[in-house]
Structures are given as structure tokens and as C-alpha cells.
Amino acid sequence: MSKWVWLIIGVAIALGIVGLSIVILNPVYYYSGSLTHGYLGMMNWVYGGSGLINNQGYYGYSYGIYSIKQALNMVSAIPPYAHVYPSNNTIVFSGSSINLVVVAMMGDDAAKMFNTTPPSYAHGDVFIIYGLINPTIVVPSGSVMHILFINLDDDMYHNFVVTVAPPPYPYNVMPYVAMSGGMGPQMMLNMRWLPPANYHSGYAYGYEYTIAINEPGIYWYICTYPGHASNGMYGELVVR
Predict the structure, then answer these.
(1) Is residue 213 within 8 Å of residue 141, measured between CB atoms?
(2) Cα–Cα distance measured from residue 232 to residue 79, given in angstroms and rounded to the nearest whole number
(3) Class assignment of domain 28-239?
(4) Mean pLDDT throughout 185-198?
(5) How far apart are CA 75 and CA 88, in angstroms?
(6) Above 90 in pLDDT, residue 178?
(7) With 50 as the cut, is the pLDDT of residue 235 above it?
(8) Burial of 12 from C-beta contacts in 10 A (0-12 / 13-18 / 19+)
(9) Strand duo 143-151 + 97-106: pairing
């Protein structure tokens, strides 16, 4: 065979080895575009368009603008499959299809608005999920979670990322999360920080994405803006 044929074969083999290394070494996998079916590793992510996860159809990653009133109504409307326990700041979900509405805001504002207390480790901005601040979320393994995240903070950027990297978090959390195998390049590209809400005009920025967690264990949801996770903007996600 010619040297060009051998060159093509060599490149194909090298790419195959790189791909196999990623599958073996990285326990969390991310997908762009449409996903037709299946499960790899611990999490499946879908961005853009629509697709199927575990034979169920969901929309992928998308941005949107929401009215602040609409966002507050949605994050306060507890779905029938969510069991909220304020005494231990926990929400237990049942079923395999879960809608999770999350908003971000300053901890003092959240405490006053939702008449609840932030966890002792939270010293700044926080997440609010169905009336609780940074709650522990418990879901069955194999659940498909459709997440809607809206930034209701009036002066700070935020995002909402699920990761396997545990606290404590450094000030610049993204390299730490990336090295843990808990964030892929597509995740970092899409989960950008949302700008502050415009309370004068009554609207806020948000995004939606779908995640399937098939492996039982402890995960975490965090904001990756520098200093936010290290200041307590995170919560526990238990998959059982």
C-alpha cells in the first residue's frame, strides 16, 4: 500500500485510541445535538434540538427570557411528585420524569421572599428550588430531569451545573470541576453565566436542558462563577 493509505490508517487508529480513552477515563459524558437513545457512563446530556433519552422524548438545551413574576410562580408551584421537607431542607422526587425549576438570587432576598433560612454554609448568593434554599435533592436512579434555571439576581451572573466534584470548592471552581471528570467541553461551552435580571422591565434570563442520571451516588449542583460555589452556592443531589 502507498504511504498515504498507511497515513490514513494511522490517523484512524490514533483517533480511535483517543476516543476509547475518553470513554474509559471520564465517568460523565456530554452530548451536543440530538441523542436518539442510550446510556453511557453516569449522565447523558442533550443540547440543542430534541431527542430521546432512555426511549423518552425531551427538548435539549435552549435559552429563553422569562417574566420575573412567571419565574417566581413556577419555582413556588410544587409538583405532585415532589415531597418537600423544610425541617431538613430536602426535596424527595418520585417517578422517572422530573421537572426541576431553579432560580438564583441573593441569600437575604431569598430568605425574606420564601420565608426560609439558608444552610449554614451559604454566605452569599443561593439557589431556590420549590421554596427551599440550596436543598438536598433526592431522585430515583434512571430519572430524566428537565431542568429550568432562571437568574433572578439583580446584580450578579449565575449558572446551574450538575457535577460529581464535591465541596469544598476553590474560588475558581471550573478547573477543579473539569479535572474531576464532572464537566465536559460542551458543558462548559453551553452552561455560560446568565446576566442579572432586569427588575425595572420585569424579565430575567434562563435556560433549559435535560439530564438523565442512571448511576446511584452523590452528585452536586453548583454555580461556577468565580467565588460563588466557594461561598456556598451549591447543594447535594442524591441518586438512589
Answers:
(1) yes
(2) 26
(3) mainly beta
(4) 75
(5) 19
(6) no
(7) yes
(8) exposed
(9) parallel
